[in-house]
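Aim 2 progress. For M1 family metallopeptidase, the working sequence is reproduced below.
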Amino acid sequence: MKRVILSLAVLLPFHFSLAQEKQWEGKFEQLGTDLPTPNEYRTGSGAPGKAYWQQQANYEIDVELDDKNQSVTGKEKITYINNSPDVLRYLWVQLDQNVRESGTNTYKIQETSIRDSIPAKFATQGLGITDYDGGFKIKSVTDAAGKTLPYIINKTMMRVDIPQPLKSGDSFTFGVEWSYNINDRMQLGGRSGLEYFPKDDNYLYTIAQFFPRMAVYDDYEGWQNKQFLGRGEFALPFGDYKVKITVPSDHIVASTGTLQNPKDVLSKQQIERLEQAEKSFDKPVIIATQAEAIEREKSKSNKKSTWVFHADNVRDFAFATSRKFIWDAQAVKIGNKTPMAMSYYPKEGNPLWEQESTKAVKNTLETYSKYTIDYPYPKAISVHSASIGMEYPMICFNFGRPNEDGTYSDITKYRMIGVIIHEVGHNFFPMIINSDERQWTWMDEGLNTFVQYRTEQEQYDDFPSRRGPAKGIVDYMKGDKAFIRPIMTNSEQIMQFGNNAYAKPATALSILRETIMGPELFDAAFKEYAQRWAFKHPKPADFFRSMEDASAVDLDWFWKGWFYTTDHVDIAVDEVKWFKLRTEESDIENKGKKVKKGDLTAKEGEGKAMDFSNGPEEFSLVETDPRYYGEFMNRVDDKAIIQKFVDKNLYQVTFRNEGGLVMPIIVEFTFADGSKTIEKIPAEIWRMNEEKVSKVFVFNKEVTNVVLDPKEETADTDVEDNIFPRTEVPSKFDEFKDKKGK
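Predicted structure tokens for this construct:
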């Protein structure tokens, strides 16, 4: 029997080689107890359980906006329905405007310092030196009979004590009267507020968080009454809204919901144009023209008009109002519905907004409906105001303003389209798939940014997407870990907010779709999650479990690495060895000689190029020892098997995990004749050794080059160690990087 020259480790799986003294990180261990235990409310599959429940809050609101002193005054009647199995003794109401009161914790917890030459505007915001009197002024809290209810205000939360415990299945109705002063966003920032136009002495108002809103009570943590500190956005229950909005009679109002009294607030011509827009699927119809808006800007009416809107099964309500508004709209075909895509904008937004805004709304509704559920609401609105991007059901406020002469750059155009897609997309995440933004920013921002990226790529040619492509996250991922936190971090503790909550989860999902699961499996699972949790309150575990349940792909290793750690992707080609089967001729030729060729270790060869110039190392295949057959009586044809390896080229490639994040291994081989092939190895190859693995590839042709992650689809942070042969000559790296378009 001939001696085995090549170790069986070359042909058999690489041995588990963890050092005895080192603690195992367990990157492939199941999430297990990291996720909440399934129960009758939330199942192990990620779907709502048979006993799933959620609360409902219905509103009747009367609100008036004063254009002379820039204030809002309102009263509301809230009917809160207890669908939980619990008895409630008090209710929690969100007072989000209180983030701007003088004693707000938001200012107190911000780190501040003094440096030379501080712009006055930033000193006002950062140091809280302002004459603005912010926050809700609560006039009364009463029951349905008008009797005063006891309440306690704790910063941005108000506890309302109810006369009798609210039993399961019962409802309680109470009223609140309030007012507040509208903040100037230019001076004070904010998700809503006013923008002033000095040239024509007019205001554009984007009004949100304008009424006391019920907090969420759910099966997961009871009341979600974490304080609003300015970053973690809003967790809200669904309900039906009837809202009356009183504004100057020369204003145009954009709002959540369906307008109930068009004849009272629109001209006959505007109503006709709106009816025309409802049948226009190819382009927008202008309902309120620029010429009409300019005329309205010239004088301020002392009369008032009340716009009445109804909205069913929404989690919030917002509106915008101005005498400066131009308004256009068109119909969009979504399944068996025809929602309206609308835009409202001042003349300062033209011509860009007339050309691109409603088109972007339409594109968003179509693409998001494809990946989630058919858009269920009657309209989606994009409102233009300076330096903002913020979302509410059926309406959002967006930046993107041309120069004063109407010209604009491609950067301005694409940033405007991008923010419109993103904010309109929030109708799906979290306005319909209603995650808890106060706790998990990534569940709405990250998922939404991922579908935004799909929309940009599918609806536009050569769109310069910022977030979503794998290579776009590389600089963040390889950064100083002292300034990075896991995606699974509460909104108020996140560092590098945009990268962490928007870009990284969007990139992770893109990699999951394109590289790990494939579009077909991913899309089906993602859509299943959306359909399961539409108009419900999902948590992270529901997303993780649904994606696995609907795809039959074990992704615990992926969630652990990308969402629970700050590891990054850096896989290196550590070593390449070339083998060929020893033939009888080579045995004779090399008799009496010690031959070891092809040991091409990237770490060796100080200052020398490591390549294939030494030729292959030879190995032998031998007849199978009978003991390897066990109880089997039949035998394999050893000679036939050995013959299959004649003239084959075997390449043992060793990969080293430098970044800690386990990922699939994607390798491109270039052959001597110039042809190429790509081999994809699932991430599970790392399951026995998370630091180093080897794999043998068998080809008919000789390999000249090996490149790891050739299309830069895994967010590998160091591509220079992805290449073999490697060289110390800089021009060689430069040549490769030029070819990669870096």
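Residues 248-407 form one domain. This observation will guide construct design in the next reporting period.
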